[in-house]
Amino acid sequence: MFGTALSQLRYGLAILRNRRIRPQDLERIARDLVATLAEFGEPGADSALLPGQAGAVDPAVRRTVTERSLRATARAAAQHTAYYRRTFNGLGLDPLTLTPDTWDRIPVTPKAALRGLPAAFVSAASTPALMALTTGTSGTPTTVWYSRAEVEIAVAMSTVSAVLGMGLRPRHTMAYAGCSRATLPLINVEESVTRIGASFVQIGTVDPVVALDRLATPLGLRGKAPQITHLTISASYLSALVEEAERSGWRASDFGLESIGVGGEVLSEPLKERAAAALGARISTAYMMTETLPSGGTPCTEGHLHHTTEFGHLEILDPVTHEPTPPGAIGTIVQTPYVPYRDCTLLLRYATGDLVARPEAAPRCELAHLPATSPVLGRWSGPLSRAVPTRSVLNLLEAEPDIPLPARHALVEHPPGPRLHVLVRRLPAAALLGRLEDRATAAGLALDAIVLHDDPAALPPTGPVRADLREHTFESARPAAVRVASPA
Ligand SMILES: [Zn+2]
Fold it and tell me: What's domain 6-150+288-379's architecture?
């Protein structure tokens, strides 16, 4: 859910155009929004937070603001963190002389550096309050320390996002189906939802049978919608729910879901369509990561991902050479989150590893004033991850009902070209293979062959997904008769 309304928030902040946005401004905007909801039930058509209420920002002014933010962030990092003090001393670089054009004199910070020694990135001028851990699907989790003020900013952003992006109102109930150990998103969602006056349910990443049952169960609360209306979930666990819902004959009308916010993983188009059909809700997504929040991205109607400029500096660079990625090519997101929105873990030119394509031509969409990339294509793990991105593979596989979800797949280098290994329900599956080959060719995927397996043990090692963070419960599935009795 977090970050869905970042673009709208930007419009609101543009009232304060041309001067620095203070963290307390974010909290004030969130507070005002909640107060308006409490009094009028809706944000109000003239809300300054809605799109179209602010003019464009002068590029010269934008550049000045960027330069000031870069210098302030570099100075704080060089003065107060062990890692960047060493970097700036080693280079003999004065942070206050940097400009957007000379910003690349600072070396890119690899993920491994933060993972290896998180304390070296914590500002000596801050008070670390919360240790946020990334999921670590790509290996060891990364530790990111948050101050109390940073948590407050995150909650404020999350509140605005829930109201404007997911349409959350006091009569609604939001369920969180992310991993229960993901403390930061859990606090964010719970705090923002209950501030709005809506109710909150923690489901966790449990057996999909249990999760669907929980979503369908009547709440019986006075003044509230009869069932859970909103859901925050990862893409792979959503796919596990879709699999179970389709397999066990759930109908969309069994649920009261209105809106599902998906984050953290690549959400393919076919999964989005199947989830909307199976669960009867609109599906939204946004880009956000623990290390770089509150910077983030929001999709437009033309399929770009647009990135905020107020809270951080975005670069799209080659994952190996760190040279800027030209239009039309694929690079990785390198992000510098600005002080004072971040004051605890400070990062300069942080290599997120998230692969995106730069648009061939300048966008002409409703968010054209914000930097645009493609949606995240996958995570950089070597040349193969760029040649055949995860998003292309999922677009191929998640459209096929004969492939169990979450889709299990592995790309293996096998000269003359990579082979895509896929787990299917049963073999032989000649028709499925033919379809996959045709669609892979049509999509221009540089594959030598597709190899189907019906035995997970025979499949080459596949990457872990968030749905694998399964939490145990003592509940067993309730009998199907209960589902029939649930409200349509
Ligand atoms: Zn766009």
Answer: 3-Layer(aba) Sandwich (3.40)
Distance from the alpha carbon of residue 332 to the mean position of ligand 1, in angstroms: 19
**372 C-alpha vs ligand 1 centroid, how far in Å?**
6
Q: What is the full per-residue pLDDT of the chain (488 aa) written as tens digits?
A: 333 344 445 444 544 444 556 777 788 888 888 888 888 888 765 444 443 333 456 778 788 889 999 999 999 999 999 999 999 999 999 999 999 999 999 999 999 999 999 999 999 999 999 999 887 766 788 999 999 999 999 999 899 889 888 899 999 999 999 988 889 999 999 999 999 999 999 999 999 999 999 999 999 999 999 999 999 999 999 999 999 999 999 999 999 999 999 988 999 999 999 999 999 999 999 899 999 998 899 899 999 999 988 889 999 999 999 999 999 999 999 999 999 999 999 999 999 999 999 999 999 998 888 899 999 999 999 999 999 999 999 999 999 999 999 999 999 999 999 999 999 999 999 999 999 999 999 999 999 999 999 999 999 999 899 999 999 988 765 554 445 544 44
Strands (E) located in 85-170:
128-133, 143-147
Taking the centre of ligand 1 as the mean of its atom positions, its distance from the CA of residue 289, in whole angstroms, is 20
Spacing, Cα 315 to ligand 1 middle (Å)? 17
At 211, which helix (H) or strand (E)? helix 208-216
Distance CA 354, CA 331 (A): 8
Distance 411 CA to ligand 1 centre (A): 31
Question: What fold characterizes domain 166-285+475-485?
Answer: Rossmann fold (3.40.50)
Greatest Cα pair distance in the chain: 72
What number of CA atoms fall less than 13 Å from residue 107's CA on the CB side? 15
The two tokens of residue 378 are 């996958």
CATH of domain 383-459: 3.30.300
Q: Which residue has the tokens 């057996």?
A: 207
